[in-house]
Structure formats: C-alpha cells, structure tokens
C-alpha cells in the first residue's frame, strides 16, 4: 500500500502538517475491507520523522473525524461521514446528528449586495439587482465542514429580522413566508483551489463537493439560490428521487458532474 512520503524539510509548513496532508490524501482511497490504519511506528519509518510528529498529525486527523485512536489497539479509519440529503424538508441538523456529529454555524454575515450574474439568472432577475446575501460556515466541533452562500430577493427577505438568519435551516425561515414547494440542485466535484481552501482551512489540492441550488414557490417563482462547498473527506450526499408518478416517468431535479481537471 503506497503513500507519498516526500517531505520538504525547508518548507515553512511544519512536518506534522505535511504528514497530515499526505495521510488525508491516503484516507480518500483507503481499501474498504480494512479499517486498521498505519501504526505510529510504520508512519515514523515511512516519513522519517519522530513519534511526536506522527502523533500530532494523527491527533489532528482524529479531531477532524477522519480516524479514531484506541489505546492498546491502534488507529482506525473512520468511515462515518456526514450524510446530507436534498429536499424541501431537509433538516441538516438532524442529518449531521445521525452521523454522530453536532452542527453549528459561525462567521454569519448578512448584507445587501448586487446579485452576481450567475445567481441572478437562477433567480429570474436582472444582473446586479440588489439581493439579501447570507454567508456562513458550518462546523462539526472545530472543523470547518461546509461554506454556504445564499442569495434571496429583497422582496422576500427584506423584512426578516437578522436573528432569524441564525437559524441553521434557512428553509425553515423562508418556507412559511414564501411557500417553498420545490428545489433543484446540482452537485459538482472539484478541487478546493485558493478560494475554498482558505474558507475551509484545507489544502488547495483537497477535493470538495460544490452544491448549487435554487428553491421555488408553488407558482414556480424562485425564492432563493446559492451554493454550498463541502470538504469531500467529511461529507457524502444522498439523493432519493421518484422515477414514476401517476404512470409517467419523472426526471430527477438533481444533476451531478465532475469539474474538468486542468492540465499541468
């Protein structure tokens, strides 16, 4: 079982952080039939570092929910990712709790801003029309798991008190006001890049899931649009969609695609 073990000892990035980064990449492809991870001694030999360096890397991985360490038994791969599902009744708080992870939000920012062209099209409004923008982080413990951006027409969100936006579920805030009936979502696999690596405190080469969505009222008018970016090592997405209704085939409103990888 190979692993990239080259460390840059002249880098300002500490050795334990470089070891952690290499192990994160390895965990993404760890064999499903084996939950036992490398021993501390094996990692010392692989990377040529001290036991203290190995332990610091593993402690951070454990804090992020990627491995579990059991005294006297070793280190094990934790496959219990946070599982989210999509729908107009999505309850992210309960979904995270079912994975054994508590959810809380941080860095909440609500402002009025000109709507970017991409989201204006989804909302059926002119580009640069003023909208209410909500930006936040979702965390499990101290780990930044997801970054959210939501854009809502002023006519819908303009009179909602700021405190209401502290609610974990924006759907619960807007449903009684706008009568949300339907949602479309698109999920894309990508690399974090500089923008999302900074927001989620991960390496730019780390994989992420990017979920764009738009929700609609009963008459079909858009209520809000936005994007969520998830750490792919922390979250998986579950989709259940009816394929038939009243004898007619129904197409799912969920689209999944992979972003093209730039050539070196």
In short:
The protein folds into 2 domains: 15-77, Winged helix-like DNA-binding domain superfamily/Winged helix DNA-binding domain (Arc Repressor Mutant, subunit A); 82-258, Chorismate lyase (3-Layer(aba) Sandwich), CATH 3.40.1410. A hairpin with a 3-residue loop joins β1 (67-70) and β2 (74-77).
Topology readout:
Layout: H1 15-27, H2 40-47, H3 51-63, E1 67-70, E2 74-77, E3 82-85, H4 92-98, E4 104-114, H5 117-123, E5 130-140, E6 143-153, H6 154-157, H7 170-178, E7 180-191, H8 193-200, E8 207-217, E9 222-231, E10 235-238, E11 244-245, E12 248-249, E13 254-258
Parallel strand pairs: 3-10, 7-13
Antiparallel strand pairs: 1-2, 4-5, 5-6, 6-9, 7-8, 8-9, 11-12
Helix pairs in contact: 1-3, 2-3
What do you see in this structure?
- The protein is α+β, with helices and mostly antiparallel strands and 264 residues long.
- It has 2 domains: 15-77, Arc Repressor Mutant, subunit A, CATH 1.10.10; 82-258, Chorismate lyase-like (Chorismate lyase, 3-Layer(aba) Sandwich), CATH 3.40.1410.
- It is built from 8 helices and 13 strands.
- The chain has helices at 15-27, 40-47, 51-63, 92-98, 117-123, 154-157, 170-178, 193-200; strands at residues 67-70, 74-77, 82-85, 104-114, 130-140, 143-153, 180-191, 207-217, 222-231, 235-238, 244-245, 248-249, 254-258.
- Helix 1 (15-27) crosses helix 3 (51-63) and helix 2 packs across helix 3 (51-63).
- Residues 260-264 have low confidence and may be disordered.
Number of strands: 13
> How much strand content do the residues show?
25-35%
Please tell me the CATH architecture of the largest domain by its name: 3-Layer(aba) Sandwich
List unreliable stretches of 5+ residues.
Answer: 260-264
- Domain count: 2
Query: What is the CATH homologous superfamily assignment of the largest domain?
Result: Chorismate lyase-like
């Amino acid at each position: 079982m190979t692993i990239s073990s080259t460390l840059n000892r002249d880098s300002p990035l500490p050795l334990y952080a470089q070891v952690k980064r290499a192990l994160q990449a390895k965990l993404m492809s760890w064999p499903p039939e084996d939950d036992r991870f490398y021993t501390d001694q094996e990692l010392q030999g692989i990377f040529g570092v001290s036991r203290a360096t190995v332990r610091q890397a593993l402690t951070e991985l454990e804090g992020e929910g990627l491995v579990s360490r059991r005294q006297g038994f070793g280190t094990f791969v934790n496959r219990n990712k946070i599982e989210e599902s999509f729908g107009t009744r999505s309850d992210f708080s309960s979904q995270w709790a079912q994975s054994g992870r508590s959810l809380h939000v941080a860095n909440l920012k609500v402002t009025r801003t000109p709507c970017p062209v991409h989201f204006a099209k989804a909302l059926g409004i002119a580009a640069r029309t003023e909208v209410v923008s909500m930006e936040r982080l979702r965390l499990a413990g101290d780990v930044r798991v997801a970054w959210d951006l939501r854009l809502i027409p002023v006519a819908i969100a303009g009179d909602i008190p700021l405190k209401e936006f502290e609610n974990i579920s924006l759907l619960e805030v807007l449903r009684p006001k706008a009568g949300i009936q339907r949602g479309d979502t698109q999920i894309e696999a990508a690399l974090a890049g500089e923008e999302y690596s900074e927001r989620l405190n991960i390496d730019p080469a780390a994989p992420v899931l990017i979920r764009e969505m738009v929700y609609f009222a009963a008459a079909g008018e858009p209520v809000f649009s936005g994007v969520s970016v998830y750490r792919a090592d922390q979250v998986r997405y579950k989709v259940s969609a009816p394929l038939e209704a009243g004898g007619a085939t129904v197409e799912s409103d969920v689209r999944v695609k992979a972003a093209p990888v730039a050539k070196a």
